[in-house]
Design goal:
Number of domains: 1
Number of strands: 14
Strand content: 5-15%
Order of helices and strands: HHHEEEEEHEHEHHHEEEHEHEHEHHEH
CATH class: Alpha Beta
Radius of gyration: 20 Å
Helix content: 40-55%
Structural class: alpha/beta
């Protein structure tokens, strides 16, 4: 099988020739791994057996500009500071009391994202790999950035119409960017890949009732968009979000990514038993403890144990329990994990 065929068989809940592999990495780890192996970007992906490749729209909008304290700025004009994307320096709609306050915000133009090169970039892989596309669409995080999590928690009860409109306006931007990307290149993209972290280490960040009322409509809009173009839809979601999984499945989500086995409710065997026939499961090889603290031999053993649970019947993509393998992770442990994935065969 080609990598693409392998991945699509997994989405169809069939067992492919081997378990598909996924590699996500922090830039710092990726550079360290290239130095350690002497490989370039594509050479390292091949060495690891990564079955996916990803294409992006390019930002071509107005110069965002950063204040002296900021290290990053979102398309919505929210500045952040810190490692990676950092944390927001302010919450510009924290005081929003009415629908008008939301409508009057200077929302970004989806045309700022240039999709003209996506099709050629995707087709350069020659149909060999499973291609991820669409906008990352972290609407949940952006809503929190706009008002703060504590304010949002009250707003969903005290001003539900304001909270609903805020979700809608944020999602409008991502919906249109992805729609334009699929209009230009859907035939060359296999999976609409989005990301929203609804879980913490000990459980979901909001209950099922609030999730269904406020977050699920945005998620379903994006799922329906992907399905309109006959693409699979997979969402990255950190933490212990098991109580929300039935809602995600009812909305039509095809896959969930970077499952964390040490978060509450995310035990691989239970997830496989309860949901494995209805949604693709991606991740579950522990990067919090096993990959960082283990030896290569221990990593191989733990990887095989996870595959014994997750591989039967298909519907599984193997990879670390977080998409952002951290710089402190030993390269030899990551190589051991991916070697174990490629070598794995069920008896």
């Amino acid at each position: 099988m080609t990598p693409r065929e392998r991945v699509m068989a997994a989405f169809a809940h069939r067992e492919p020739d081997r378990v598909p592999a996924w590699c996500g990495s922090s830039p710092e780890f990726w550079e360290k791994a290239k130095r350690a192996t002497g490989l370039d970007d594509e050479g390292l992906r091949i060495r690891l057996g990564d079955d996916f490749r990803r294409v992006y729209a390019k930002y071509r909008g107005p110069e965002l500009g950063l204040s002296p304290r900021a290290t990053w700025k979102s398309p919505f004009g929210i500045e952040r500071r810190g490692i990676g994307y950092g944390q927001p320096l302010s919450h510009p709609l924290e005081g929003a009391a009415t629908v008008r306050d939301i409508l009057e915000y200077p929302w970004p133009d989806p045309d700022w994202m240039d999709v003209s090169g996506v099709k050629a970039e995707a087709e350069a892989w020659g149909g060999h790999y499973a291609i991820l596309g669409g906008d990352w669409s972290p609407f949940w995080h952006d809503v929190i950035d706009f008002v703060g999590l504590e304010t949002l928690s009250f707003m969903m009860y005290d001003r539900p119409e304001v909270a609903s409109l805020l979700f809608e306006k944020v999602t409008d931007f991502y919906f249109r960017v992805s729609e334009r990307m699929f209009e230009a290149a859907a035939s060359s993209i296999d999976v609409f890949f989005i990301g929203n972290d609804f879980g913490s280490q000990t459980g979901p960040l909001l209950g099922v009732e609030l999730f269904d009322r406020f977050a699920l409509p945005s998620l379903k809009r994006l799922i329906d968009l992907g399905h309109r173009f006959d693409r699979k839809v997979m969402m990255h979601c950190c933490g212990g979000f098991r109580p929300l999984l039935p809602s995600m499945i009812r909305a039509g989500l095809d896959g969930v990514h970077a499952l964390q086995p040490f978060c509450t409710g995310m035990e691989p065997a239970r997830l496989k038993k309860d949901f494995g026939g209805r949604i693709l499961l991606n991740g579950a090889i522990d990067s919090q403890h096993v990959l960082i603290d283990g030896t290569p031999g221990f990593v191989r053993d733990e990887t095989r144990k996870t595959l014994d649970i997750m591989a039967p019947g298909g519907g599984y993509v193997a990879g670390a329990s977080h998409d952002y393998i951290l710089e402190e992770t030993p390269v030899e442990n990551v190589l051991a994990m991916f070697d174990a994935i490629q070598e794995y065969r069920r008896n």
